[in-house]
Amino acid sequence: MLPRLCLLTCVLLGSGLSAIAHAKPFLIPVGAAKVDITPEVPVRLSGYGNRRVEATEAAQRIWAKALAIGDEHTGGRAILLTAENCGVTPAIRDEVAKRLADSIQLPNERLAISVSHSHTAPCLTNWAPFLFGMDLPADHQQHVDQYTQTLTDKLVEVAKMAARNQRPATLGWAQGRVGFAINRRVLQEGVWKGFGEQQDGPVDHSLPILAARDADGKLIAVVANYACHCTTLGGDFNQVAGDWAGYAQEYIEQDHPGAIALITIGTGADANPSPRGGLEVCQR
Fold first, then answer.
1. Which domain holds residue 229?
2. pLDDT at 73
């Protein structure tokens, strides 16, 4: 499934988005950055409630990334942050927003945080607190709290890095289509019968893409959005990983050295990737 997503992204980056070059370009300051957020200590993973032990290995590095657009001469700066995690709490966003307001005068309403909704990323303090149906052991909770603070610090760090990296750029937009998401709520005679694959269920296969290129045409960053759970890996997999979104952005960056790929998740709460399985399925 990933080659189709990455191939389509590359085609759109190479052709559809370059159409703006025929008009006189409007330059706007754009900067991007990324930081590694792979945990350095054992930590419980979020997403599935059946896990009972901490993850001690990472099958793939995970990342926080930032895209900064605009400045005081173009209506003000806005920053998009992405994190490979199942979700972030209002407390995390509030803390990040406060620190960015103090350090780079970023207005609260100009900060957005998006996650990949990976089910193989660390738990965060007070996010889905009833996921496991019981309190975490004290040492597990300590590691979750420690990682939450580290992630908060790194979100602030990567946002400031992106702001420092801003340079004149053009923005281009295109939309493609990828078909690996499938509705996961099985209905029989209009009654929900459990999770599975509902072939005729509603699903959004659109793939909107935003690309930023510098004044010389070199790709700075690409944001792609797809409405699908990051649940290729099941609850029996207990290693840190980015799932399909992690590999998608990794492959895009390999194809465009120096560029930063940010994958965001659309309204895919009832959509799972198909097929599902192990790492080899994520990597396809």
1. 2-282
2. 87
